[in-house]
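Section 5: illustrative case.
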């Protein structure tokens, strides 16, 4: 029974990571060529294996999409926060969420046949791999969002400081932001890509404030949202951008220090369980072991 459960789970995880790696690889390639394709207004035909796989997922996902607009809006926001912003990403997500549990169940049945197990006796166990396959894409999506927000949280204060320096040196806001987005392409790739999209939208005729609000909408990091609000207010009311950004940068660094202090304060509580389960029994054996042995021999002499 244990072998029939462990093997399909391992095979499922390997297949899941393979599909996930292919999709991430293709998505990274699309991000690199995104600006050039939009600026050149070119549409190249895609016939690679990853594109065929995506097409299959899209066809399956179109049937599995929820009918409620609220559910679609929530998934769309989550995918945007994870940097999946193509039109077909929702269908691909639901396609993966439907096909992976089916694949896992098929593999589970095949392994039952190989190990000479009765399928009728293991039908109830099949619920667990099916549930894992259905909820695991959501878990990975939330993990990607948290990881992306953590990177933005680390990158943003340095970017704000550089923006302040450029603005105070005499560059205009647009020129300073463009310079920073190019300079931070390797050290802060997420923010560099976001503001590259900002310049692309403004060059295509979108108002500057609306392009900034699009950045805020497509990212769930609170610090970035506050940064966009500061820029929006400065542009709207004509206030000094450098002074407002300096205050916001100080607040973000204070918040980052508070987060570090909070994590440090949690260390003692997290060490309680290892201390009790691993270290304390060993200490008790070392301290009380000799006394227990002596007491044992003394009791033998008394009763025997």
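Designed sequence:
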């Amino acid at each position: 029974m244990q072998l029939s459960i462990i093997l399909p789970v391992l095979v499922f995880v390997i297949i899941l990571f393979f599909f996930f790696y292919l999709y991430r690889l293709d998505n990274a390639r699309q991000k690199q060529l995104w600006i050039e394709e939009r600026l050149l207004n070119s549409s190249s035909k895609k016939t690679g294996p990853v594109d065929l796989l995506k097409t299959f997922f899209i066809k399956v996902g179109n049937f599995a999409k929820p009918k409620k607009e609220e559910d679609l809006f929530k998934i769309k926001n989550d995918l945007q926060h994870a940097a999946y912003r193509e039109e077909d990403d929702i269908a691909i997500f639901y396609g993966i969420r439907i096909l992976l549990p089916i694949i896992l169940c098929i593999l589970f049945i095949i392994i039952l046949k190989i190990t000479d197990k009765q399928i009728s006796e293991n039908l109830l166990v099949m619920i667990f791999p099916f549930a894992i396959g259905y909820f695991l894409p959501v878990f990975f999506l939330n993990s990607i969002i948290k990881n992306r927000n953590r990177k933005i949280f680390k990158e943003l204060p340095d970017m704000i400081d550089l923006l302040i320096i450029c603005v105070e040196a005499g560059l205009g806001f647009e020129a300073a932001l463009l310079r920073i987005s190019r300079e931070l392409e390797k050290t802060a790739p997420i923010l560099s890509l976001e503001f590259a999209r900002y310049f692309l939208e403004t060059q295509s005729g979108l108002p500057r404030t609306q392009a900034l609000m699009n950045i805020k909408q497509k990212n769930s990091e609170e610090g970035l949202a506050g940064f966009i609000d500061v820029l929006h207010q400065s542009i709207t009311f004509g206030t000094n951008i450098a002074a407002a950004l300096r205050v916001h940068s100080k607040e973000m660094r204070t918040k980052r220090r508070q987060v570090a202090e909070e994590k440090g304060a949690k260390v003692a509580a997290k060490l309680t369980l290892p201390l009790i389960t691993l270290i304390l029994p060993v200490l008790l054996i070392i301290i009380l072991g000799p006394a227990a042995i002596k007491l044992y021999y003394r009791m033998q002499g008394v009763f025997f």
